[in-house]
Sequence to fold (319 residues):
Amino acid sequence: MNIIDKALDLLKGGKLVAIPTETVYGLGADAKNPLAVQKIYAVKGRPPTNPLIIHIPNADAMSHFATDIPEDAWRLAKAFWPGPLTLILNRHTSVPPATTGGQDTVALRVPNHSITLELLARFGGGIAAPSANRYGRISPTTTDHVREELGSKVDYIVEGGPCQIGIESTIVYLAAGSAMILRQGHISATELTAVLGYDIMVKGGPAIEAPGSSLSHYAPIKPLYLLEKLSLQNIMTQLNDQKRHYDVISFASPPEIEPYISQWITASNDPIQYAQHLYSHLRDLDKTNSECILVEAPPNTELWLAITDRLARAARPLE
Ligand code: TXA
Ligand code: MG
Fold:
């Protein structure tokens, strides 16, 4: 049996299948089967009020999952699907509330991955899939990461290679009036605004804010500190004085002699490449024998917003 046949059989039987997408791997189940969907919440340890994204094969399928679809949704779908954009619309009554965490709205997206697109086309329905990690942890961008996170709790993992984008989709709310960004991603406000013809709103404040524990997400197990270049140098000096080991992700090259640096990653200056490798880097650094991870804050520009948002949520305030 080939990969897609096997995944199809399992999904139809109410099982959990991890699926590749261009952003991150998803933990998939039949979106219209409440029992299957409940397994997703159980396996992830995710609160049942936190809604899932339903992956659909194409824009036309939107009307099987949503009602009162505004013109803006069709426009954005046409411009960006398949791709890393999730649209929040009014829920169609055929979608079980279990899938939307009890919300009257529903999140839809057509992922840009050839295997998953074929799977969706043949499945006929929608695949509900949050990122395939335990709740609050780093999203997986390879099948090894999925195995590391979920092990035998997932019935099958579809191998689709490393994810090309590496961070989660941009989420746009469209269920009332004008569009609003709920989560930053690869597709920027400028790109969305160009298609919509009006300035899209962005929910929340600046991307870097003091991350309270309730915001903690995408997080390694050891403490991660997000620091401007100058404070990064200060902290490194302090840790050296205290003989404590640490890892660094910086845009600079590593200093020549530095006995307390466990691993130093020189990050790409290109936000596309940075995003592609970010979660792998964080997972690797989580496995070293250091006490903490220091990350140099990226530039304060639009192209880096989604990355800064993820880092800010992964970070802890300095004690
Ligand atoms: O790129 C992605 O979006 C990946 C891949 C697998 O598609 N999925 C993903 O799912 O990141 P997850 O569950 O980790 O994040 C989904 C986000 C959550 O923050 C959730 O609150 C939000 O989407 N969401 C889903 N349905 C919503 C709704 N009806 N209203 C508001 N937010 C919603
Ligand atoms: Mg997630």
Confidence is low (pLDDT under 50) at residues 206-214. The chain has two domains: 3-202, 224-314. The chain has nine helices and 15 strands. The longest strand covers residues 85-91.
